[in-house]
Specification:
single chain, 912 residues, tt1808, chain A, Rossmann fold, 6 domains, 7-stranded parallel sheet, 27 strands, 41% helix, flat
Length: 912
């Protein structure tokens, strides 16, 4: 068969699977089907390889070339164009050839001549006849529609979102196939994407958009945001205008416009395979590394053809879409928009370096869209240096059952910090970290809080997370609700996550990977790293869990003692994660090679390459050598064959002698053909991977692997080497203080006019308070609050800063005076008022006036009001909390005709 004939066979097959009936000229019957492809149809400039007819009318041409022509495929466009502009013989009715394809047996290029500045593009297969019919019925093309987006109504949008949407509009108008939206965590990527989707549906006239995620949790989060979205130009919600569906099965309704789906489920839908539900729970990036990147091949699916989606929006696009999953994306003839906070070079390359938005976290912090972090280090002896165990009788623990027993060690063990919480468990090391955190919590980290701020602890493994949970509860003297585990293996993790986000308890959550990326829990104010991370991008994603902004009112719903908007978060680094070297990509953190669990899931998801199967065989062999005789017997009973047999089949699948023998056996001939040998190998591979398609068998094998015991080190008690803010913390502090100094310089004339820098009574109180409020609101737009300033001065000049009751507005006066050099120490304004109140009452009571207890209650309330508001006016006494004591009339009853004199004296004396 010639190369041309091979190419024609492949092209015929692709046309057939796309719904076209292929005919030769001598067998012409245009009524045989909606779509007919006629070979060698004569035109005024020669015979076109295939003429495409829809409803009997010519609409397109296909120019077929052999495989070697692929590198010159764009040159063939001239030939296609010539045929498209030719006269088709014997066709009397009016027609225009609108569609052109250039095809080999490997690639297909497509052009729609109705597009302004039409441009060919690679497509997975030919469009179906009904698709071309529908395109012909449309007033214009999607690409032309997108050249006429109306201006964005920017009400309610952040500047970074406006920039991203406008640039996306332009990217679509320019017919750019891919676009990358890079926005810091919390800047509103999903909101931006939903706005773009709304504009594409309404103005671009797209029929269907796929919002692609890689975990079930992210899909649920996206669904909530789509359902809650309200466009500016329509009183209805997004879901009232367009159909929104999160896929939970292999069925995709035709009447929805937004389809939310995991990349794993979409792959299984296209392949026509059943999805293991567990595959949606963990980001596939957790299971794929350089050692096992087997591309996921997809095939044509007539139910959901390549033209099914017009646009794909890929959430967290730094994960899971390169090499392994890219075919799931490129299968569809669709624009692709990526969303991420942490792109790397692969991300930029995949999206053709078309970056429509660059909004890094540093800029988001400056704009007040994100909050910055303080870094608090906890360094312990065992955590830094590991430990030594002399050969002795020691306690062991089963990883799964957690049952303990005593056993004689075979030899001395000198363990490194990296072995902690995997092979060796040292409860003292965990306890020392948690205890040090607790000791510094209300004195150094969050001195004005009455309850533990929402805190997320990153653990190494599920077992490690269990140990942390138990020790946290013990050290804080709290119950089960106070600290909970949120991991994929935990019971009902989504419910616990919801409580962590919205309820008072749990105060502390422990996770491994489940909420390390992508998941919003805005009230988190503290992250404790008890695991190291080697990927720069993954570390940035983990930090993103604390960077979300939150108003005081919303923060107080779960943390009642909060007195300000969330203005920063704290990283407690107990493993040196902020110091360790990191790469741009994310290799496995725990082992230099892929774990057994990961290899098994790769196989279940379709990996059949030699590297993956051989690696898995080696793990099974290793496991077989570790198992006891009873475990081997149980393995054979559960799996249906011995571990040795499982490993042998995996290795044999790529053994040439075994493959040849299998081919000879199957065919009965001594010299099988190349195709027969390939078929024999396919049979061997299918038999070898069969056990791993069963999720129960995978779980069983993983549990056997994990069940081997951990040593419990109760010998080496840990101790703290250092606990304090990181030296580089000074950089963050300097940023805040320099921002505040710039603010003072910009507003110096107003500050001087208010006379708040002088040590004198504050007159014209209403005017001063209102101006102060205006100044403070302006300051907060820079992401700077009174509490944040106070903490920064405390870190920078601890000997000059006094902790105490914060009153926010009036304490701004104390901070301004301290910064401008009018006072040597930074003392809360309330402390000054309290001292002056004590002196004033002593002086009064020492004279002829003796205040009664009833009067003292009134005076204390007034003192607190002055501490917060500079002074008091008679009309203030009708407001809370004075109204509970009868308001102004009650005050008159208590003090008589002297009531105004008392107020005036306190206004002067307490702030003097």
């Amino acid at each position: 068969m010639t190369p041309e004939e091979k190419a024609r066979l492949a092209i015929d097959e692709k046309l057939n699977q796309s719904g076209w009936v292929i005919q030769d000229m001598k067998r012409l019957n245009l009524s045989a089907s909606l779509g007919v492809a006629v070979r060698e149809f004569p035109t005024s400039t020669g015979e076109v390889d295939y003429a495409l007819f829809v409803d009997g009318t010519p609409v397109g041409v296909v120019e077929a070339k052999r495989e070697e022509a692929g590198e010159h495929i764009t040159d063939v466009e001239v030939q296609s164009g010539r045929y498209a502009n030719s006269t088709f013989k014997w066709i009397k009715n009016e027609y225009a050839i609108r569609f052109a394809y250039e095809a080999t047996d490997k690639i297909i290029r497509f052009t729609d001549y109705k597009d302004i500045k039409y441009r060919s593009r690679t497509v997975f297969s030919f469009h179906r006849p009904e698709t071309l019919r529908d395109l012909l019925r449309q007033p214009d093309t999607i690409r032309n529609n997108m050249k006429h987006f109306p201006p964005l109504d920017t009400n309610g949008f952040r500047k970074c979102q406006i920039n991203a949407i406008n640039n996306l509009d332009q990217s679509f108008a320019d017919n750019r196939p891919k676009a990358l939206v890079q926005m810091a965590t919390g800047a509103g990527k999903t909101f931006t994407a939903i706005t773009a989707a709304y504009r594409l549906l309404k103005y671009g006239k797209m029929k269907r958009i796929l919002f692609l995620v890689d975990t079930k949790g992210l899909g649920e989060q996206a669904e909530r945001e789509f359902l809650a979205y309200m466009p500016n130009d329509d009183p209805r919600s997004f879901s009232q205008i367009y159909g929104v569906r999160r896929l939970k099965s292999s069925y995709i309704p035709n009447d929805i416009q937004i389809c939310i789906c995991t990349i794993q489920r979409m792959y299984s839908i296209l392949k026509g395979e059943t999805l293991d539900e567990k595959a949606e729970e963990t980001p596939f990036a957790e299971y794929v590394t350089a050692e096992s990147k087997a591309p996921k091949e997809v095939v044509y699916n007539a139910k959901y053809p390549p033209e099914f989606f017009d646009c794909i929006i890929v959430d967290e696009c730094h994960r899971s879409i390169y090499n392994v999953w890219s075919q799931v994306l490129t299968y569809f003839d669709a624009f692709i928009v990526g969303l991420t906070a942490t792109p790397d070079n692969r991300t930029f390359a995949f999206f053709n370096e078309n970056i429509v938005s660059e909004y890094p976290r540093e800029q988001a912090i400056v704009d007040g869209v994100n909050v910055g972090e303080d870094i608090f280090l906890i360094e312990t002896q065992v955590g830094k240096n590991g430990g030594f165990l002399m050969k002795q009788l020691i306690e062991y623990r089963d990883r799964l059952s957690r049952a303990k027993r005593w056993r004689q060690m075979d030899e001395d063990v000198n363990y490194a910090p990296s072995q902690l919480d995997r092979d060796i468990v040292n409860p003292s090391q965990i306890r020392t970290v948690i205890r040090t955190f607790k000791e510094n919590l209300f004195t150094t980290l969050f001195p004005r809080r009455k309850e533990v701020p929402k805190t997320l602890i990153f653990a190494k493994t599920d077992s490690h997370a269990d140990d942390i949970v138990q020790i946290v509860r013990e050290e804080f003297g709290e119950g089960n609700d106070f600290c909970r585990k949120i991991t994929y293996s935990a019971d009902n993790p989504e419910s616990v996550l919801s409580s962590f986000r919205n309820d008072y308890n749990p105060r502390i959550a422990v996770t491994v990977d489940m909420i390390a990326t992508g998941t919003d829990v805005k009230p988190i104010e503290c992250l404790i790293f008890m695991r190291d991370v080697w990927s720069k991008n993954y570390f940035e994603q983990m930090k993103g869990r604390g960077t979300r902004v939150l108003s005081k009112e919303d923060l107080q719903k779960v943390t009642p003692s909060a007195t300000e908007n969330k203005d920063h978060f704290v990283i407690v680094d107990a493993v040196g994660v902020t110091k360790s070297k990191k790469s741009d990509t994310r290799p496995l953190e725990r082992k230099p090679t892929v774990s057994m669990k990961e290899l098994m899931l790769n196989v279940a998801l379709g990996a059949k390459d030699e590297n993956t199967l051989t690696s898995l065989a080696n793990r099974v062999i290793r496991l077989n050598s570790q198992m006891s005789p009873s475990e081997r017997k149980q393995f054979e009973t559960t799996v249906g064959e011995s571990a040795g047999s499982v490993a042998e089949k995996l290795l044999n699948a790529f053994d040439e002698d075994v493959i040849l023998a299998q081919a000879q056996k199957s065919t009965g001939v001594p010299t099988p053909t190349e195709e027969q040998i390939k078929s024999a190998q396919k049979e061997l591979v299918q038999a070898a991977v069969a056990p791993f398609h069963d999720p129960d068998i995978r779980d069983y094998i993983e549990n056997v692997r994990r069940s081997h015991e951990q040593i419990i080190d109760n010998v080496n008690l840990d101790s703290v080497i250092f606990a304090g803010f990181d030296a580089q913390q000074e950089e963050n502090v300097n940023k805040v203080l320099s921002g505040f100094r710039a603010f003072i310089e910009e507003n110096k004339s107003e500050i001087v006019a208010l006379r708040i820098i002088y040590d004198a009574a504050y007159k014209d109180r209403p005017m001063v308070v209102e101006k102060l409020k205006e100044l403070y609101e302006k300051l907060k737009t820079h992401g700077i609050t009174v509490e944040r300033l106070w903490d920064c001065y405390a870190i920078k000049q601890p000997s000059k800063v006094k902790r105490g009751t914060m009153a926010q507005l009036t304490d701004l006066i104390s901070i301004i005076r301290f910064e401008m050099g009018y006072t040597d120490t930074l003392t809360p304004f309330a402390d000054k008022v309290n001292y002056n109140f004590m002196q004033w009452t002593f002086k009064k009571n020492a004279g002829h006036i003796q205040f009664t207890e009833e009067q003292m209650e009134w005076l204390r309330l007034i003192k607190d009001h002055i501490a917060a508001s500079l002074s008091i006016l008679p009309e203030d006494l009708d407001l809370t909390p004075f109204d509970r004591k009868g308001g102004l009339l009650g005050f008159y009853d208590a003090f008589g005709d002297n009531y105004e004199q008392i107020l005036q004296e306190m206004n002067v004396a307490l702030v003097a």
